[in-house]
UniProtKB/TrEMBL annotation:
Chain positions recorded as FAD binding sites: 231, 256-257, 270-274, 287-294, 308
GO MF term list: electron transfer activity; flavin adenine dinucleotide binding
UniProt-listed GO biological process terms: fatty acid beta-oxidation using acyl-CoA dehydrogenase
Family: Belongs to the ETF alpha-subunit/FixB family.
UniProt cofactor note: Binds 1 FAD per dimer.
Domain Electron transfer flavoprotein alpha/beta-subunit N-terminal: 18-207
Keyword Electron transport assigned: yes
InterPro entries xref list: DHS-like_NAD/FAD-binding_dom, ETF_a/b_N, ETF_a/FixB, ETF_alpha_N, ETF_asu_C, ETF_asu_C_CS, Rossmann-like_a/b/a_fold
Domain of life, per lineage: Bacteria
Name this protein carries in UniProt: Electron transfer flavoprotein subunit alpha/FixB family protein
Lineage of origin: Bacteria, Bacillati, Bacillota, Clostridia, Peptostreptococcales
Keywords: Electron transport, FAD, Flavoprotein, Transport
Cofactor: FAD
Length: 346
């Protein structure tokens, strides 16, 4: 087995620097890596520490080097032929090995399917805690504790969690929550290669083949405009109206969980605490009441338009423009206005 093992007694002062675990697939870097690099830079600057981004793979040195353009002082490229394809054991073991050797103080991982898979395993191997799905990170400058905030008790309150006795302090953060780091044309960080002590027998799974899903991609995270429907649509056919408006405004279709739970639309479209976190320029919520778990995923949108027939619906407290009315009348009127004027007049 690999050398990675659980820390027992640790000296907190031995731990330094902020790390971001990058995610790549065939050399393509997941956008959450750039978001976490921006957040990692902010935390490192607050603490007066260095920022490192960790990339694992085989033959992806050029892609790893490109991450220096987002403000990392160091990119550690964990390079090994056995890391060519993602495997839970291979990635978790080699990242843990590097953590045990270099002792970072903070480690951030994207809460993607891969991040959610490896983060708890890494935390277990290096003997520390993990706070999943954080929505806000701050540091206490006096004792360097990472204040990790996340929704708790079904999203009804926000809990701030600390990891006082173990290191590193590890958090996962969902894609879309943090702002992307800006591109730096002439970075001065450097790339270091790390060869992990990985053997074939450490990886108990074999990738037989990759099958690409033929499902239409839903890209809520990068969408500039999202038109979302909720229980107020009353039936799956209600989404025909939502799709028609989304098409007119070049937007993606989102939904509340109530619409997903009713089987009217796939979970891929769900916005909120247990769906996707989005921050488009324009979010149009149609027949959505504005439950706290829905707001958790869209309240950072630049402009929010709400259509709801109940003037007391909580969504009206967060929206920039509210339309009290029946969505079956309001949405066709909006589409007609766009057809007539070439733009939306509310
Ligand atoms: C742990 C946990 C996680 C959750 N995660 C999520 C999540 O990720 N995302 C999420 O969305 N929810 C989530 N929820 C569920 C959440 O609490 C709400 O139940 C859900 O958001 C309600 O969806 P809705 O607004 O579509 O439905 P409702 O709350 O039923 O609201 C429907 C709205 O439609 C309006 N309406 C009805 N007819 C019309 C009409 N003809 N025209 C205009 N308006 C009309 C009504 O006035 C009402 O305000 C979660 C809950 C829990 C406990």
């Amino acid at each position: 087995m690999n050398k990675a093992k659980v820390n027992q007694e640790i000296n907190l002062a031995d731990y330094n620097d902020v790390w971001v675990i990058a995610e790549q697939n065939e050399g393509k870097i997941h956008p959450v890596t750039i978001e976490l690099t921006g957040e990692g830079r902010r935390l490192a600057d607050t603490l007066g520490k260095r920022l490192a981004v960790i990339v694992s793979g085989a033959d992806v040195e050029d892609e790893a080097r490109k991450l220096l353009h987002y403000g990392a002082d160091t990119v550690f490229y964990i390079s090994h032929p056995l890391l060519k394809d993602f495997s839970t054991e291979g990635y978790a073991l080699s990242i843990s090995e590097l953590i045990l050797e270099k002792k970072p103080e903070i480690v951030l991982i994207g809460a993607t399917s891969i991040g959610r898979d490896i983060a708890p395993r890494i935390a277990g191997k290096v003997g520390t805690g993990l706070t999943a799905d954080c929505t806000k990170l701050e540091v206490d400058e006096t004792d360097h504790k990472l204040l990790q905030t996340r929704p708790a008790f079904g999203g009804n309150l926000m809990a701030t969690i600390v990891c006082p006795r173990n290191r590193p302090q590890m958090s996962t953060v969902r894609p879309g929550v943090m702002e992307k780091a800006a591109f730096i044309p002439n970075p001065d960080g450097r790339l270091e290669i790390f060869i992990p002590n990985l053997k074939e027998e450490d990886i108990r799974t074999v990738l037989m083949k990759k099958v690409k899903s033929d499902r239409k991609k839903v890209n809520l995270i990068d969408a500039k405009v999202i038109v979302s429907g909720g229980r107020g649509l009353k039936s799956p056919e209600g989404f025909t109206l939502i799709r028609a408006l989304a098409e007119k405004v070049n937007g993606e279709v989102g939904s509340s969980r109530a619409a997903v739970d009713a089987g009217w639309i796939e979970h891929l479209h769900q916005v909120g605490q247990t769906g996707t976190t989005v921050r488009p320029d324009l979010y149009i919520a149609c027949g959505i009441s504005g439950a706290i778990q829905h707001l958790a995923g869209m309240s950072e949108s630049k402009y929010i338009v709400a259509i709801n027939k109940d003037p007391n619906a909580p969504i009206f407290k967060v929206c920039d423009f509210g339309i009290v009315g029946d969505l079956n009348e309001v949405i066709p009127a909006m589409i007609e206005s766009i057809d007539k004027n070439g733009s939306l007049e509310i």
